[in-house]
Amino acid sequence: MRYEQEFVDGLYARVDALRGDTEGSLTDALAQGDTPMQARLERDILVAERSGLLAALNSVDGSLCFGRIDLADGGSHHIGRIGLRAEDADRTPLLIDWRADVARPFYLATGHTPMGLRRRRHIASEGRRVTALHDEILDLGDETRTGHEDPSGDAVLLAAVNSARTGRMGDIVQTIQADQDRVIRAPHRGVLVVEGGPGTGKTAVALHRAAYLLYEHRDLLAKRAVLIVGPNPAFLGYIGEVLPSLGETGVLLSTVGELFPGVRATAADTPEAAAVKGRAEMADVLAQAVRARQSLPDPVIAIEHDREVLLLDDDLARVARDRTRAVGLPHNAAREHFEGHLLNTLTDMVAERIGTDPYDGSNLLDPSDITQIRDELAENPEVWAAIDRLWPRLTPRRLVAGLLAAPEEFLSAEDAAAIRRPVTRRWTVGDVPLLDEAAELLGEDDRVARSRAERERAEQVAYAQGVLDVSYASRTYEFEGLDDEDAEVLSAHDVIDAERFAERQEEDDHRSAAERAAADRSWAFGHIIVDEAQELSPMAWRLLMRRCPTRSMTLVGDPAQTAEPAGVGSWSKILAPYVEDRWVHTRLGVNYRTPAEIMELAADVVRAADPSFVPPSSVRSTGTAPWVRATADLPAAVAEAVRELTPEEGRLAVIAPRELHRALAAGLDGVTEGAEPDLTRDVVLLDPRQAKGLEFDSVLVVEPGRYGTSDLYVALTRATQRLGVLHTGPLPHGFAAA
Ligand SMILES: Nc1ncnc2c1ncn2[C@@H]1O[C@H](COP(=O)(O)OP(=O)(O)OP(=O)(O)O)[C@@H](O)[C@H]1O
């Protein structure tokens, strides 16, 4: 133990020294103030790098080194949250990052397949103090003993799964199990589906996979960012500290409801509305809604021009519309074509009227006259009013709000009734994929994009000018009105070329990749991880697939826990439209959360509906059976049960139907409830949907007869230690034994 303590002390000394250096260079860099452009650029890159390093160094305090492997050939490695090297000439490795290949046997080696190891040691610590060692001998012929043997090899794992919960998920880097490790490091580049029952570590594995991928493919992923999608904001709060604790900050955590920049979903859909909005057919409905806005005169539009009236009829407008549609561009991008066609049509009308030779019917106007007529028409507000009526510029918000206000044109009476609502500024989670789909169909107005591109180019040029002023102070170039020839001159001198312009421009944007991604609807993520993937609707999948053109994705979920009416039942149904059958399926089968006694009750409930159901097997039993009690006075019984179940250390959740919350909260001191409850409080009141993905030391489930099977299954599998059930009404099937 003394040796390990001294070794760990040495590591912390190295971390402290590095931290001091990093802080120092960061302070120096920030103090540089207004410097020439080139120096500023370098300074900013340095600041970003150092800030990331500092975050990683700060995050490891307390559990820097947690393991050691002794090799059969006599060497050994210490394993930790980050990699550290000595300051010697060889930069000798002191601590191996858990994600490095060298560390892998720490997670995988067994007596049967020792992978070159003689011994595996888990090092437990509190703060910087080493508190215990747990050794597993992997070379069965090895007689040496350390006095810290852990014959079953699971003391550290059991201590972790039995520890009091904090209301925030912790990392599992010390005790990743072999089947989990295989998922975390899976080399598959396409879609990887990870399925498993409650508590099998799907969320934990998904987060560690993000950290692993960022380590393994840092160049690519740090630039493109990793997106992690979770079911609701409370869940994202719950898992939000895992990656920072592993030193990773380059990740965007988001719900689907937050993935349309500028929109926050604050309203709720009825289950019927969510189901209709989530269907894949809504993509066609939106496409029809866009086409319906490309209208025709009914029967004519009269345009006053040059003291005459031009009558634009339905046939003429139809020709312009058909030609525009044939271009195949999104609606707003196509509008420029419509304008052109319509102006040509009107120009022909005017030219015919004023230019026709009364004797032979030929046209007397020359091309410059025609151009003049067109220009005059283009200045006439009535022409533009007609164009706006026939091919209006549309925003996704306007289109979707319009569709929801009057859906009967496109949907059956029943579906229309489910989603109809007055135009409002409040959006639901189910609206977000519709907005995103609408944005795709509408496209950007090309001119807006072009003028932005021009502005950006001007900025780039100005920026490059600054850089060049520094690097080539003796030469001056005139960048204003830079044309191709000038650009040639520049690249010929190898001063800076167009690509470098763009790079510099990117470098000059000091937001992290994750921050930029959050603000950009068209961002392509390097990898997407979806937790509770079974809940997403086909429309939500369309949105996510657009954000990940490479289809590099990890999807974790449990179909038995599907609650959302719009959720998709089978992985192949979800994935076939995007990757056909080119996806890999893996399964996790051990439940690390729920003790066997509780799992048995939960499994009975599902089996009552599906006799073929196979639950995950629990890694431990506690000897404490769950209890089920009938009561006539629910609030009083809940208050009493809460007193009974509240753990000395840790958290308790009361899971009850939403409509009972107010009555129950009144009898519970300091309980938190609401849309985004504070999960770090001792007692939290949740409805079953909110409980999804979370866990507590003790759980009290109220009125189980009012839940559907999957919601009840979720509720019953949230406890790590104790479960109580209170009911006034009849019990659901499956409770018989309890
Ligand atoms: N290898 C492990 N070592 C220690 N704890 C683990 C390990 N694997 C999972 N756990 C713990 O088990 C609990 C359940 O994990 P997690 O929430 O990831 O499961 P899940 O499969 O996502 O469950 P659910 O489907 O019910 O949301 C967590 O507390 C997690 O830290």
UniProtKB/TrEMBL annotation:
GO terms for molecular function: 3'-5' DNA helicase activity; ATP binding; DNA binding; hydrolase activity. InterPro entries: DNA_helicase_UvrD/REP, P-loop_NTPase, UvrD-like_ATP-bd. It comes from the Bacteria. ATP binds at residues 196-203. Signal peptide: none annotated. Keywords: ATP-binding, Helicase, Hydrolase, Nucleotide-binding. Residues 175-595 form the UvrD-like helicase ATP-binding domain. One of its GO terms (cellular component) is cytosol. Gene3D superfamilies: P-loop containing nucleotide triphosphate hydrolases. GO terms for biological process: recombinational repair. This is AAA family ATPase.
